[in-house]
Design brief:
By secondary structure, the chain is an alpha+beta fold. It has one domain. The protein is built from 2 helices and 6 strands; from the N terminus they run H-E-E-E-E-E-E-H. Strand 3 and strand 4 form a beta hairpin. 20% of the residues are buried.
Length: 118
């Protein structure tokens, strides 16, 4: 991850972004020690909440998610997304900060459209 991308994500830490009709996004990001699980040295959580404050979408690397294909420690993904409030998470292929933010807000738009149609 380039320093510019890292700085961009860190600059967004603690941001709450209004999405209209009571929906909102919260961005959290902070530096951590580089490890095998988090080789780029940043912990992040990007979440979309409904008007009741319930998380209805989230991208994060706060915990591991087991691969469907096995139980080996190498199959654990830390970068993942939650597709609703009860979803334990599915693997997300983190490439860089720009891609993360782009993918997250594309999914935000999709979820808002579906949620508002209910």
């Amino acid at each position: 991850m380039g320093k510019r991308g890292l700085a961009t994500l860190l600059d967004l830490h603690q941001q709450i972004i209004d999405q209209g009709d009571g929906y909102w996004v919260k961005i959290e990001a902070w530096e951590i020690e580089i490890s095998v699980a988090v080789p780029y040295g940043i912990r992040y959580s990007l979440t979309l909440h409904n008007p009741k404050g319930v998380r209805i979408l989230g991208f994060d690397n706060a915990h591991s998610v087991r691969s469907k294909s096995g139980h080996s420690a190498r199959k654990l993904a830390y970068d993942h997304k939650h597709r609703n409030s009860r979803d334990p998470g599915i693997r997300y292929d983190f490439k860089d900060v720009h891609g993360l933010l782009s993918d997250f807000f594309i999914d935000v738009d999709k979820v808002l459209k579906l949620d508002k149609e209910k």
